[in-house]
Design brief:
Layout lengths: L8 H14 L3 H16 L5 H13 L4 H44 L5 H27 L4 H17 L4 H15 L11 H8 L2 H9 L5 H15 L7 H12 L5 H13 L7 H31 L2 H7 L3 H29 L3 H16 L5 H20 L1
Helix pairs in contact: 1-4, 2-4, 2-5, 3-4, 3-15, 4-13, 5-12, 5-15, 5-16, 5-17, 6-7, 6-15, 7-15, 9-10, 10-11, 10-13, 12-13, 16-17
Length: about 400
């Protein structure tokens, strides 16, 4: 059903199919692209709707970019929009990682992956940095309270190399109390809705745990837990996957897992699609499908269930203030993640130059296609890495 949309659902689906096909840079870059394209350029999505979606994606567990995409699909086309947009966004990168998984098993590893990642990883840092800068200047401006929340969450992310949902909630509550303090505290009527949202992941895990204890059943349960209980960006799921896939279940070796993460970083779309590659290595195409479905289903439910509350109460001063605070915290965490990732990807003078040149090019040429930058960086990596580390 259409709700005052300026565009057909098919156009939105095509946009996310394209973004899932050529959208490099991980969650930070992807949410930046969505803002640039859908809010600023095409004006399909309002500023407030985007901020509400970003807040919801940060508060709920699961991959940030995929949840924001689903919410933006929900804005004007409700459940049908969230479903179609989410599938369009995830499908291209899923097909890519399955194809790479097939080649990986067929040819015994990816010896060129390290050289590719050497160049691409540095370019991705530059792309993410530009996206984080745009989000910061647009949403925080000169507000000192928001800047303080931004600084705290950025510092926490750099220091701990992780993200905390409590900082997002704390930032929202602080701005709410300062700008629109409640005349009275919420009564009992609010508690059931909050309790329903807080416990929403449990039924999913419970249903999946009833599956027959076959390999696919284990995969389904494990990846449903990963999707239901891991907060933050797509990269936040990596430690959880490492512990379960390598140490608990012994499905992959250390080397295979590192290759899986590299594949996720080198392919466009959501970084968390690495679950498809892992599932393929463990149990072929059925394993890839089950792992991906298990990971994305919880985040889909965490988007469409609370979305009506955001749409209904999103314009109230108290919620607007809360959203501003959570948005500032989220952008701070994203900026901190840029620094953390830079520490791992900027390893020498060449990678530093690649990152700096990428920032300069993206700043100077606003419409420069990111895939072109990534491809050039990949070629540089293939040429430079063997010479420097051969």
């Amino acid at each position: 059903m259409m709700h005052d949309a300026r565009y057909p659902l098919a156009s939105m689906a095509r946009y996310f199919l394209r973004l899932g096909t050529i959208g490099f840079g991980g969650p930070v870059a992807l949410v930046g692209y969505m803002y640039r394209d859908l809010v600023e350029a095409r004006r399909w999505i309002g500023e407030d709707d985007y901020k509400e979606g970003l807040t919801l994606a940060q508060l709920m567990p699961g991959p940030l970019a995929a949840q924001l995409a689903m919410y933006l699909g929900y804005v004007h086309y409700r459940i049908a929009g969230a479903t179609i947009v989410g599938a369009a966004f995830v499908l291209p990168s899923f097909l890519m990682v399955v194809a790479i998984g097939f080649a990986y098993l067929r040819f015994g590893g990816l010896p060129w992956m390290q050289a590719l990642f050497y160049g691409v990883g540095a370019a991705v840092i530059g792309i993410i940095a530009i996206s984080a800068y745009k989000l910061t200047t647009k949403n925080i401006g000169r507000d000192r309270l928001l800047w303080s929340i931004f600084a705290v969450t950025a510092g926490f992310t750099v220091w701990t190399q992780s993200e905390s949902v409590w900082l997002f909630l704390g930032g929202g509550v602080l701005v709410w109390l300062v700008r629109a303090p409640p005349r009275r505290w919420p009564g009992k009527s609010v508690a059931p809705a909050l309790a329903a949202l807080d416990s929403h992941g449990a039924p999913t895990a419970s249903m999946l745990s009833n599956i027959d204890l076959s390999l696919l059943g284990h995969i389904a349960v494990f990846f449903a837990k990963a999707g239901a209980f891991v907060f933050g960006s797509g990269l936040a799921i990596v430690p959880f996957l490492y512990a379960g896939v390598v140490h608990e279940h012994h499905w992959l070796t250390e080397r295979q897992f590192v290759d899986a993460v590299a594949v996720a970083m080198l392919t466009p779309g959501p970084v968390v699609i690495t679950v498809g590659f892992i599932g393929y290595l463990v149990a072929g195409l059925p394993g890839a499908c089950v792992a991906s479905l298990g990971t994305f289903l919880p985040c889909y439910l965490f988007t469409i269930v609370p979305a009506p509350y955001f749409k209904k109460y999103g314009k109230r001063p108290a919620l607007v203030a809360f959203v501003d605070g959570v948005t500032a915290a989220a952008i701070g965490a994203i900026t901190g993640a840029v620094i953390v990732l830079a520490e791992r990807s900027i390893v020498d003078v060449v990678t530093a130059l690649i990152a700096l040149v990428t920032i300069g090019v993206m700043w100077r040429f606003k419409k420069m296609p990111e895939p072109l930058v990534v491809c050039v960086a990949a070629v540089i990596g293939l040429l430079a890495f063997p010479a420097l580390h051969g």
